[in-house]
Every structure is written in C-alpha cells, then in structure tokens.
Automatic annotation (TrEMBL):
Organism field: Scleropages formosus
Protein name, per record: Stomatin (EPB72)-like 3a
Transmembrane feature ranges: 31-56
Gene3D superfamilies registered for this protein in UniProt: 6.10.250.2090, Band 7 domain
PANTHER family linked to this entry: BAND 7 PROTEIN-RELATED, STOMATIN (EPB72)-LIKE 3A
Lineage of source species: Eukaryota, Metazoa, Chordata, Craniata, Vertebrata
Protein's cellular compartments: Membrane
Band domain: residues covered: 51-210
Transmembrane recorded as keyword: yes
Gene field: LOC108941482
Length: 282
C-alpha cells in the first residue's frame, strides 16, 4: 500500500532508511542480546511470563521495537502478544476518532477584514506504525497544523465567502489537512467551522445595510400594490359606469357592511334613480 511504501522509504534505520523486521539487520550483537534475553526469560520462568505477555484492547494497536527497530513492519493487536523483557519495547496507539477544538484565530480576510474564527476537527490514526515512526507526537502536531491551515485557507477568502460558503471552506480544510497528515498515518475525517465573530462596528454597519435593504424592498412592494390597486379600481369604475344596476348592488353591499357593525349612526339610503331625476332637472 501507499503507506507501506512511505514507511519503507522513510522509516528509521541506519542504512537506506527502510524498516526491517527482526530477522534482517539485527547483526551479531543484536542476536546475542536477543538470545540472552530468551535465556533469562527461560531461567526466570514462570515469573517472567507476566513481563512477556501484553494485552491491547480492540481499539488499540501495539508498535513493537526490538533493539530500536520495528518488527514485522506492522502493529500487533488486538488481544495478547509477547515481548522480550530486555530487548523489546512497545507503544500503544489508539485508533478511535479524536475530536478537538481549534482555538479562535484572528484572521485577515482577502478583503482586509479582521475576523475571529474557530472550528472543530475529527481525525483518527490510520497507520499506527507511521504515527509512531514518522512524527514525535501525532496528536499535538495535528492540532498545530489545523490552526495554521485555518489561517491559510481563510486568508484566501473574502468576508462574503466566509459567511456564505462554510461547507466549501470545511471541505477545503479537510483536503489540505488530510494531505499534510498522510505521511504521519493520520486520517482527517471531518472539519467544521463553528463560529465567525465580526468586529462590533462591522456588525452595526451590516445591520444598517440589511435594514436599509429591507426598507427599500418594502417601499417597492407597497408602490407595486398601490399601482395594482389603482388599475383594479379603474377597471371596476369602467364596469360600473357601463351598468347602473351594478352601482346599485355595490351601494347595497356597502350598506350591509355598515349595518353589520355596532354603530350608533343610522343611515337611510335613497334610491340612486331619485337622485338622477334631480340631477336631470338641474
């Protein structure tokens, strides 16, 4: 696999930097020390058996070093494994997903706006051997790299993109972090932007701009309503002028609405035809 090739070309060692198992590269002195450790183990048996047997959990792996070299090119576990008490040492690696918060970072955006941004990162150890052999502290290194990556990625975005495209920024950060931590045996599963804090003056300016935009839209909508209402009234007046009976019906409908309310004023309607006769005499 890709990580095995990286480990073979970059792992610790003396000759070409590749990682060898216990059967290659120990040398005469190394084999003497191993045989001496086996002899001590046999002489002190069964007391030494408690020092040789180790157990790792289902979510853990053990990277075993024999005289400073990683044996078998892979981690042991889960379950029981054996180590030699004098020549072997091991490091436990937790494979569970780890999450940590990125502290708030003061970032200058592309359009020269200073904002405070924090986030959260989820990662896990994918290759235990690389996480032990290629970096001194994988967890701390990933945390520091996440902070610098947050600054670098957000420094190329303007404020509008930062506020509207958080998902795209999260994917970009995840790809950048995953590519950088691949050599360490770390798999970055998810990156999320939690909060973006703007300066108080900028918040007030944006609020005033949004309020002015809403007022402008309200005025436009009100003007359009007035225009549509005037057109409807014009059409209604034309229809009523063509039919006197329609005017009489509208008049009676208005009276019924007035009578439905609790008013102290009583209105006696006069026929429209009577008024028209007076107008014709004049």
């Amino acid at each position: 696999s890709r990580r095995s090739k990286n480990l073979e070309t970059e792992g610790g060692g003396g000759d070409s930097g590749s990682t060898h198992d216990s059967s290659a590269g120990l040398g005469c002195c190394g084999w003497l020390l191993v045989l001496f450790s086996l002899l001590i183990t046999l002489l002190t048996f069964p007391v030494s058996i408690f020092m040789c047997i180790k157990i790792v959990q289902e979510y853990e792996r053990a990277v075993i070093f024999r005289l400073g070299r990683i044996i078998d090119k892979k981690a042991k576990g889960p379950g029981i494994f054996f180590v030699l008490p004098c020549t072997d040492s091991f490091v436990k690696v937790d494979l569970r997903t780890v999450s940590f918060n990125i502290p708030p970072q003061e970032i200058l955006t592309k359009d020269s706006v200073t904002v405070s941004v924090d986030g959260v990162v989820y990662f896990r150890v994918e290759c235990p051997v690389s996480s032990v052999a290629n970096v001194s502290n994988a967890d701390s290194s990933t945390r520091l790299l996440a902070q610098t990556t947050l600054r670098n990625v957000l420094g190329t975005k303007n404020l509008a993109e930062l506020l509207s495209d958080r998902e795209g920024i999260s994917h970009s950060m995840q790809a950048t972090l995953d590519d950088a931590t691949n050599h360490w045996g770390i798999k970055v599963e998810r990156v999320e932007i939690k909060d973006v804090k703007l300066p108080q003056q900028l918040q007030r300016a944006m609020a005033a701009e949004a309020e002015a935009s809403r007022e402008a839209r309200a005025k436009v909508i009100a003007a359009e309503g007035e225009m549509n209402a005037s057109r409807a009234l014009k059409e209604a007046s034309l229809i009523i002028s063509e039919s006197p009976a329609a005017l009489q019906l509208r008049y009676l409908q208005t009276l019924s609405h007035i009578a439905a309310e609790n008013n102290s004023t009583v209105i006696f309607p006069l026929p429209i035809e009577l008024l028209q006769q007076f107008l014709q005499r004049k």
